[in-house]
Amino acid sequence: QVLLLESGGGLVQAGDSLRLSCATLRTFSSHTMAWFRQSQGKEREFVARINWGGSTYDADSVKGRFTISRDNAKSTVYLQMNSLKPEDTAVYYCAATILGTYDYWGQGTQVTVSS
User: Fold this and answer.
1) Collapsing DSSP states into helix, strand and coil, what is residue 21?
2) DSSP letter, residue 37
3) What's the average model confidence in pLDDT over 101-113?
4) d(Cα 29, Cα 73) in Å, to the nearest integer?
């Protein structure tokens, strides 16, 4: 059963913006939600997370460019990505955790940034 569904990926040019969405198909309001990404040939890496109270933490590689947010009323988590770079090209995944281990994962959405 798919519980997390990402959307919003696409092909953009360097410097452009994209907003990814993660629709949660059950209540995740108590969970910490996060975005990860995986580039071809590389390991999956953490991008950003937001806890139930709205506190956020971003990877150094995206600080100042990406913003994670959540709308619990809409059961959706967002990743606003600005000033995109070719090295941001990856499949982006949404994930959820209660106790620290990310137990729930979406199927990913492809983001491609051309130079």
Assistant:
1) strand
2) E
3) 95
4) 9
Q: In the block, which residue shows the tokens 């939600």?
A: 33
CA distance 109 to 52: 23
Looking only at the bridges linking them, the beta strands covering 109-114 and 76-81 are unpaired
pLDDT in tens, 36-78: 999 999 999 999 999 999 999 999 999 999 999 999 899 999 9
29 pLDDT tier (thresholds 50, 70, 90): confident
Going from the C-alpha of 6 to that of each of 3, 23, 25, the distances in angstroms are: 10, 6, 11
Residues paired with 110 in a beta bridge: 91
Please tell me the distance from the alpha carbon of residue 16 to that of residue 67, in angstroms, as a whole number: 15
Neighbours of 14 (CB within 10 A): 13
Q: Is the dihedral of CA 16, 14, 11, 56 positive or negative?
A: negative
Tell me, what's the pLDDT at 1? 62
